[in-house]
Design goal:
Length: 668
């Protein structure tokens, strides 16, 4: 067991593996207290590695039972084995050789729930990020990819279901009431994607025909008696497979896709190749016990883990510093899937709420770090809102900058170039530079710098020249360890709204204006718009097109105009919600002093107009009518908070809105 602080690992110190592994053959004999694991690997010396260079593999609380080199038992002086490392002092001079390692595990007492463990009678694995080294000594790093064949043996009564990655090859009975199942995954993968499950499980099964006509067997394994509750998850899975084929041209690549959902899985979900493992709260639901939010979460997480098949599995990370490459991209993909399945505006509102509550707070505090951090001590601390959520926003910005056609062309090139490889952020950006013909040197700073940029906005209108001028500036706040901040390209989707509430035609000679997007790539700039008959109402950061804070002192009158007419649903919600928050904060301050306060009639009228606008989606109207919470008001107030005044003001506002909606509101 480790008793010392782990050393700091730096991205700049990355070195390629000295030895690669081409194939892995495993025999796992399941037993709660004494599981035997025999792992045979075909090892290949990397190009540039001198013959005789020691082979050093990872371990974690392991006990070595036996080690063979090319079929012969090794002399004890030829290697050193500790709980945390195996060193082969003088490997063969041959370029390739075979290494067979036998370890013995106690899954029942593995309370770390990493590697192979048993809980509630079910054997299960979790190997991301560094769990495989708790099963056998191995080059447990994401840039070592191998083809796996796994034979799992277990008691036929206690473990009637035996699963691993890939396609089923063979199964049958053994002596003493045991049986076996062999699985083969033809696609090279890193060890963190290895998975194994054994236990008493029921299956909810279906099939899917891919775009090329291949039939895929689909199974969701659950604890006994729970299979009927997996129906919605299966439906979500099939819709995810269709969506990935249509939007990204990615077809599923195995004969079988299995999901295992158990109540004792300690992670939310894991994308192991062909064998996803979930905590069953993200799989099981029925209309009697689950909320709408439960169904939405199941749909999104099922999709996320399935989409990893290509963005994370077929193309994985060169090292853990590239975690945002697989997670940020896959979060963006599941967000877009959910937006297509449900209300796109509502999905975006919920995403931004989560982003601001989690990632913006992280970026503003002592734990601020870049999307691709430069160093770590504990890899499990890498799984942050910044890596996932801000990482997804970076992908969204790329899609906005290059446009939908160039985005698809760029992702196609990324898959073509790097399928079967362990890639870096640079590989991802280079695919865009080639396919979309853009220079992303400046954009790469988004991956390197922590902190949430602030965009300041000021306006000027010259009625005589019919010229509207927009001045934009950006600043990136200082964060721990980063004092010298550089400008980043910020895509600001925008619109100019006339008195009637319609979007004006945009006429500008600035090369920073690209259709309805301003690409702010410098510290400050003034952009002129010509032939503007009247001063417009600015709608900036439509769809929350960049993860930034906007400082724009817009009048309540203009906010209400946007709240009534903005063609961008997200900004329409933001205008009304932001104005409501301002008035609630103001009212809470008054009530704290014993004064009366209420919402302005103009805001109540705008909210009522939205509520009864049948042209708007019901889900969107519901979001608009959900006034800011007491927690939101308290956060906006800062340190000086009177909880009673906040509660009273929010309750009063809700009653005032209900009164304004009247009987028609109850019917709605």
């Amino acid at each position: 067991m480790r008793t010392t602080t782990a050393p700091t690992v730096h991205l700049k110190d990355y070195t390629p593996p000295t030895y690669l592994i081409d194939t892995v053959k495993m025999v796992v004999k399941l037993s709660p207290d004494a599981t035997e694991v025999v792992t045979t690997t075909k090892v290949r010396r990397s190009a540039g590695t001198e013959a005789g260079t020691p082979l050093i593999w990872d371990g974690d609380e392991l006990a070595l039972e036996a080690i063979l080199l090319d079929g012969a038992t090794l002399d004890g002086e030829a290697y050193t084995a500790t709980e945390e490392q195996l060193t082969l002092h003088n490997p063969p001079e041959a370029e390739t050789f075979e290494l067979t390692i036998t370890t013995r595990l106690a899954p029942k007492t593995n309370t770390k729930l990493m590697g192979l463990y048993q809980s509630n009678g079910v054997f299960c694995t979790q190997c991301e990020a560094e769990g495989f080294r708790r099963i056998t000594y191995f080059a447990d790093r994401p840039d070592v990819l191998a083809v796996y064949t796994v034979r799992v043996e277990g008691d036929a009564k206690e473990c009637p279901v035996l699963l691993s990655n890939g396609n089923p090859v063979e199964s049958g009975a053994l002596e003493d009431g045991r049986h076996f199942a062999t699985w083969h995954d033809p696609h090279p993968k890193p060890s963190y994607l290895f998975a194994l499950v054994g236990g008493k499980l029921d299956a909810f099964s279906d099939t899917f025909k891919t775009a090329s006509g291949k039939e895929v067997a689909l199974n969701i394994y659950v604890e006994p008696g729970k299979a009927p509750k997996a129906a919605y998850a299966m439906d979500a899975l099939k819709r995810s497979m269709v969506w990935d084929e249509k939007e990204y041209g990615r077809e599923y690549d195995l004969d079988v896709f299995n999901i295992v959902a158990v109540s004792d899985f300690n992670m939310g979900a894991m994308e192991n190749k062909g064998l996803n493992v979930f905590n069953d709260k993200y799989v099981l639901a029925d209309e009697d016990t689950a909320t709408d939010a439960d169904f939405a979460n199941i749909e999104a997480i099922i999709a996320h883990e399935y989409f990893h098949n290509w963005t994370g599995n077929r193309i994985t990370c060169r090292d853990w510093f590239q975690l945002c490459l697989k997670e940020g991209l896959t979060v963006y993909r599941d967000q877009e899937f959910s937006a297509d399945q449900r209300s796109r505006p509502v999905q975006r509102i919920q995403q931004v709420r989560g982003l601001k509550a989690g990632q913006f707070t992280e970026d503003a505090g002592p734990l601020a770090h870049s999307v691709r951090p430069a160093a770590y001590q504990e890899i499990n601390n890498f799984y942050t809102a910044t890596v996932y959520q801000k990482g997804a926003e970076l992908v969204r910005m790329l899609a906005t900058i290059v446009g939908p056609q160039a985005y698809r062309k760029s992702t196609d090139l990324y898959f073509e170039r790097h399928d079967g490889e362990a890639a870096r952020v640079e590989d991802w950006l280079r695919s865009f530079e080639t396919a979309a013909e853009v220079d992303l040197t400046q954009f790469s700073r988004w991956y390197e710098q922590a902190g949430t940029p602030e965009v300041s906005v000021s306006e000027d209108y010259d009625k005589t020249k019919k010229r509207y001028s927009l001045t934009l500036s950006q600043a990136v706040p200082l964060t721990p360890g980063q004092k010298n901040k550089k400008t980043v390209p910020i895509p600001l989707r925008f619109g100019l709204i006339d008195k009637a509430g319609a979007d004006m035609e945009i006429v500008s000679k600035s090369d920073m204006v690209r259709g309805d997007v301003i690409l702010l790539d410098r510290k400050s700039v003034t952009i002129h718009f010509e032939d503007v008959e009247d001063k417009p109402v600015l709608s900036i950061l439509r769809g929350f097109s960049a993860p930034v804070n906007v400082n724009h002192k817009q009048s309540a009158k203009h906010r209400l105009h946007r709240g009534r007419h903005d063609s961008d649903a997200y900004n329409r919600w933001e205008a009304l919600n932001g104005l409501a928050l301002q008035q609630l904060v103001k009212g809470a301050k008054k009530r704290a002093k014993g004064m009366k306060a209420t919402l302005d009639d103009g805001l109540l009228d705008a909210l009522a107009q939205t509520a009864f606008d049948d042209k708007l989606e019901p889900a969107f109207r519901a979001q608009v009518l959900a006034l800011p919470t007491s927690q939101s008001v308290a956060q906006a107030l800062g340190r000086k908070v009177d909880p009673d005044a906040v509660f009273a003001m929010v309750k009063h506002a809700q009653k005032a809105l209900g009164k304004r909606l009247g009987e028609d509101g109850l019917a709605l």
